[in-house]
Amino acid sequence: QVQLAESGGGLVQAGGSLRLSCVVSGRIFSINDMGWHRQALGKQREMVAAITRGGRTNYADSVKGRFTISRDNAKNTVYLQMNSLKPEDTAVYYCNAGVVSLDELGTYWGQGTQVTVSS
Questions:
Q1: CB neighbours of 68 closer than 8 A, spacing ≥ 6?
Q2: What is the DSSP letter of 102?
Q3: Percent of the chain scored above 70 by pLDDT?
Q4: What are the two backbone dihedrals, phi and then psi, of residue 44, each rounded to the nearest 5 degrees?
Q5: Is the dihedral of CA 96, 110, 77, 31 positive or negative?
Q6: pLDDT at position 1 over 90
Q7: CA angle at residue 92 from 89 to 95, to 5 degrees?
């Protein structure tokens, strides 16, 4: 069974930084695209950043130049470095990964980690 576990969320003042991590575990054969989405209260979930297995990245316009996504394929882990945080970045952040396991393949999601940015 594939599981994703996020960590690193918390409360930070505007202008501060946080680093999110997400570890994929289970009977994994390979991991393809990985990424981060977020959902603010009362809003739809939106893509924040994505990264291919080869390291090609894509960002939402609202976070370009402030957030950096990276991955460590040996550790089955994806990171999101968030700098210059703004109150509008407040949301639950979810990681996702396209996983080929020994039993099945599909896109898996973590439980989410809360990020709160105070003004």
A1: 49, 80, 81, 83
A2: S
A3: 100
A4: -75, 155
A5: negative
A6: no
A7: 105
Residues 6+ apart with CB under 8 A from 69: 34, 35, 36, 49, 50, 51, 57, 59, 78, 79, 80, 81
In this structure, what token pair is assigned to residue 106? 């599909």
Residue 78 host element (H or E)? strand 77-82
pLDDT in tens, 71-103: 999 999 999 999 999 999 999 999 999 999 888
Residue with tokens 């396209």: 98
pLDDT for res 105? 87
Residues 107, 119: Cα–Cα separation, whole Å: 35
